[in-house]
Amino acid sequence: MLRFVVRRCLLVLPSLLGLLVITFLLIRVVPSDPAMAMAGDAATPEQIERLRQQYGLDRPIWEQFVSYAGKVATLDLGESAFSRRPVAVDIAQRLPATLTLTFCALAISVFVGVPLGVVAGLSHNAWPDYLLRVFSVMGIAVAAFWFAIMLQLLFSMELGWLPLRGELSPTIQRPPRVTGFMVADALIAGRLDVAADALRHLVLPAVTLSLGGLATIVRFTRAGVLDTMQQDFVFYERAMGYRRWRLNWIYVLRNSVTATVTQIGLLFGGLIAGGVVVEAIFDWPGIGSYTVQAILTGDRQVMLAVTLLIGVVYAAVNILTDLVHGVLDPRLMERG
Amino acid sequence: MTARKKSHGPLLGRRQAATLAAGALVAGTLRSVQAADASTFVSGFALPMNLDPHQVYDVPMQSMMLNAYDNLYRYQNDPPQIVPWLAESHTVSDDGLLWEFKLRPGIKFHDGSPMTAEDVVYSFRRVLALGLAPAGAFLKILKPDNVTAPDPRTVRFKLETSYAPFFAAIPSISIVNPRLIEPNVKNGDWGKAWLASNGAGSGSYRIVSAGYRPLEYLDMEINEDHFLGWSHNPKPVKKIAYRPTKETSTRVLALLNGSLDCTDPNLPADQVEQINASKIAYVQKDVVMRTFVIRMNNTKPPFNNLNARLCFAHAFNYMGFIKDILGGYATRDPYPMPDNLWGIPKDVKGYDYDLKKAKEYYAKAVAEGAPMKRPLELHVQSENEQSVQGAQLFQADLAQIGINLKVVGNIWSNLTTAAAKPDTTPDMWVHWVSTYFVDPENWVGQMYDSQFHGTWKASSYYKNDQVDALLRKARAAVKQEERAPLYEEAIRKIMADSPDIWIYNSMQLQGLNKRVKGRRFCTVGQGAEIRWITLDS
Amino acid sequence: MSPILRKLSRDLPAMLGLAIVLFVLVIAIFGPMLAPYPEDAAASHLTRRLRPPSAAFPFGTDNLGRDIFSRVILGARGALSIALTVVSTAMLIGVPLGLIAGYRGGWLSEGIMRVTDVVLAIPQLILALALAQLMSPSLESAMLALSLTYWPYFTRIVYAETRRLSSSLFVDALRGIGAGSGRIVFLHILPNALSPVIVRATIGLGFTILVAAVLGFLGMGATPPAPDWGLAIAESRTYLPRAWWYATFPGLAILITVMGFNLLGDGLRDIVDPRIRRSR
Amino acid sequence: MIPVLSVRGLKVSIRTDEGKAEILDDIGLTLERGRILGVVGESGCGKSTLIRSIMGILPRAATVEAGEIWFEGENLLAFSEAELNDGVRSSRIGFIPQDPLLALNPVFKVGTQMLEIMRWHAPPDGLRGAARRRAHVDRLVGLLKRMQVPDPETALERYPHQFSGGQRQRLLIAAALACAPGLVIADEPTTALDVTTQHQILLLLRELVAEFGISLLFVTHDFGVVAELCDDLCVIYAGQTVEAGQVRAILDAPSHPYTRALLACHPDRATTFIGIPGTVPSPLARPPGCLFAPRCSEARALCRTGRPPQGRAGSGAEVRCVQFA
Q1: pTM
Q2: Cα separation of D38 and D41, whole Å?
Q3: Cβ of A327 under 8 Å from any chain D Cβ?
Q4: What is the pLDDT of residues B200-239, one digit of tens each?
Q5: Which residues are registered as beta bridge partners of B142?
Q6: In whole angstroms, what is the distance from residue B27 CA to residue D293 CA?
Q7: Kind of pairing between the strands at B142-151 and B98-103
């Protein structure tokens, strides 16, 4: 098992290096001049030239890459051209918010999607199945940004039930930062009201973000259940008088979720990317809105770092997915 | 409510209580937000890219540093006057080269250490060494060694050449505390990384470092020991919570539900009616100095042709734009400067929307061989709705006279990069010129003197030797009486050449909570100085 | 009627999808004739800004007084042409690479598939955003960015199919009778690998419309005054909640169009390969 | 004595896209206590539908149109799903499936799956909770030992894929017997196995019938197996019982042309390599007369118009053919 993990990690390295090269090139070959952007509105050409030298932007591109790659290897992701803060620090500060959102969305997707998928699979070609199929196609076809706006329009603007944006009401005193996770920090500080407020802020973004994944999970679970229901062992288990509920929700489900788990792994990457839009719309102070800021301001270090971060997360999730597969299906574990 | 509670026995059944509790969770914060902390001002002003006033100098920075830092002189009032602040007075030599500022006694930084002239010298040297945004006005005329402190209360500047806008730009430099910065210097970076997320000032409010996340939020708390004292405002704001919001509609809703005390000062006119209809907030209108201009790249045909430029100048529906899209909240400004600034030749009329005339100029331009059929690009700042709308309006009108204009969405950093060279500068683009310092130099000086080619402000690449001479002369003179006629003359010539399309001078619209009292407006900083404000309970 | 069409005609959701796709296609082609105010693609009418839906303006008017109904209709052409361009470009890159990698084997194949993996690992939206921004936001850069990130999907599919087919008996037989590689690949393998490619392309069309809308929404895609659906939603945000119609209808247009492609794609996939149930 | 299982006139149809398919037309069979009844037919003749009907797990699209299934004096068709699940499956009717590899859930341990069955269906023993579970484990280990599964103690902790085919079939037989049912239905339990293993399993089954006092319904397509194992025989063609009687009698003197044709095809007896010409009529469009008539070499005009009546042959078997009317 350990060997398996190590081998997978080593296999990932070349891919990450490739990712680094590609993103670096893409970001460097384009015209926008970071020195100009850094110098600010009132800069003179002399000021800009000075900055260009200072940041090595006048050196050959491969030299810039080598120095960058060297820094990345030591977890130095450089400094944001604008906030002047180490990108690694910014990311560390923002990661908890993104993780909270992503995991909540994932949790909604899984804990709602898997049961719905099972229901759809069990009621194959009956009305719950039709309904859920339409729903899942819609869930994939709906533009998240539009859905978010519709949710805001209804629940925040018209009904006023849920907050519109951010992770905390502006006038609420932030709890001291311990874990970086707002809800956890609020609970540690013993502030139930703050935790409740944070949770309320989480609802709309998490629901929005979960939608695509929810639909995908419903589809895959449904397909998995349909597949499993065709299997001889289900017939055998029914013939042997397994309790219906246990048969569907334990024995069938367990066999059906293998494909779903792969999807959850893939979804995770999608969630982080989708989070960019959702975070931007809800002003969620995570990696996504950080990325949008970086893109809008042309902050290359940040763009590079974020792309790399997502690549790493993606790879890690893939490895994790394989591990979960092994646990879910003992046959795979033995093959190694 | 409380009275009723006492008179009835068990007021709520268990189920009712549960329903109420759930309802409170759902609807709760809306109410609780309205009962905002009586001494905390929640500001919707945008935050600067970082907190170092020597690295960034733009409108959001102004609104931040006016509260956290102090300057030698500061702009106050409306119309703006430059008034003594940290300095109590200054002198200038007749040749305009030697400037001396006298500091007030007893000024303290936030850490309690006294501010001396050496600290001011340090601040200016830091600005010059970093060479970033606020240094622009000084780099050419001021050597670091020529900023000195002959005594603890006197700062002396020796300029290379006489430069009148020097004094106008003094309020752009914040005085920082070297005793806080020096321990945080890394690799001779002048503490750049540290000050980007911390404060080291003496201003009315102190930055709470733990309460800062770039572009997300910033907390400040009152500096009771500010040198001006607080006698003028017995009930000042104790805390400022900057909570910038990216989306206009979000901002407005936050204002309307009471969770924001002020919006940013660039509210779209469409929101005015809705806000004024509310019980809790209103829209404050202030005339500012912020001009809106469509640039033409004078090096690219057909814009190298005067008749072509005049054709475009007559094809913009100035009043339609101002009335219908801006709701009348702007003044038509036909000059290349705010019309409320000195140095304007008031007798010059400027150009009006007149498609017939535009067609005539079109024909003339075509006769002179200008390629009026060439598809043209007008770059706008995508995130700015108003620039997009203006561009689309222009496009629709130009289409009527047979000009093919394409609107291209772009972003600020790309546009300024592109503007560095004539051939990468777009055919046309749209921007505002805000008040960095109150002086014609901020507008015509830097926009039409050919020595500034390569900066975004001079991106029309206009070159007229007579104009260059006039502007340089005006820059070197010290007295406003001398300078005004020079600028008037220069503007006459510039307007005759019609290098750009000058559209309006802004009226700023800012949504304010009705509990905000005592606000003082000045076009520099756009009314962001919180020290005057009292929150009504 | 071919068996594929017959099977398709029995699949109700797929037929619905086909109907939607055809409907959108008709609108895209004849949009300027169908729209009540075709000039509103670029015109502005300052006197009738932000009117709610009415008989004259079924979907209301926008911030420049333009008829949203017309602009939704006119937007179909843009959405479809982006999608078609992106998907066909991605196919032009991805399919040949997949064929080469699958048929040739060796280091070339290994190299191509490694690059494919790496590109797949790049978050598509972020790369597209970064590219669109860095090359100055425009429809062209958005399309380029999307094509550059979508081709690996085709490479993967074609690679797998080619590998399967080139080890199959009939290709062996062809080799035996001395058929050239080019002949085998283009006349025998490609046609056989085509059906999964078509399925992927159908779903890719819907997906691309969605991502293009996101780019438009973030100001990195279509530029004003193009009647782009995503752009319209972005513009509408300033006027919420007052002008709810401004955001609602363009969003519905995206939803229905993408749904059409997805339903059709799902249906096609079930016919081509009922075993595989993949999304996107 | 009432028979353990008696199926009368069972008629089952399934709705399909193309119309109503009559899978079972008129099935009748009787299984006496302590005996082994072989049900023989080609694939597609309705054997598995018959099994599903008895156990009440027909697909949703299927309808029982007529007939009765009497099990120990009760009509199973009148049972609700809950009654079947609580009181019949496993506890009174055990089941041995066809393919032992596919029949076990691959992601659960063998023991988990078998204990799951016993948890709900093992006869009450006055025990509860952990004690009951321990008793079940003991019984299972005992059964596995009897089935000659190696290492019966650890077998329960292993996954299905860790056993060989023959061992898996033994596990399933043990599972079928775990709750001490009176009737066991075996669905071609040896088809997936090699000949040697097949023989061992048949021997084992034979022993178990006596040892555990069960009756066995053995479904197969293989006359060889029937000859080796069964007491009684029931031949099914296109959803109808065409011949039923004692194994010996029928094998010695097959009466129905179909039985004869089938036997003629059997490798042990075949003289030529010719199978039965033609195919089984589609369940969507059954011919009006005798269902075998289109393939029958002895068919007469009468055979193609009306359904043949049930008759009795000289061997004592019941035969559905005009020749014996």
Answers
A1: 0.80
A2: 10
A3: no
A4: 999 999 999 888 888 888 999 999 999 999 998 989 999 9
A5: B159
A6: 78
A7: unpaired
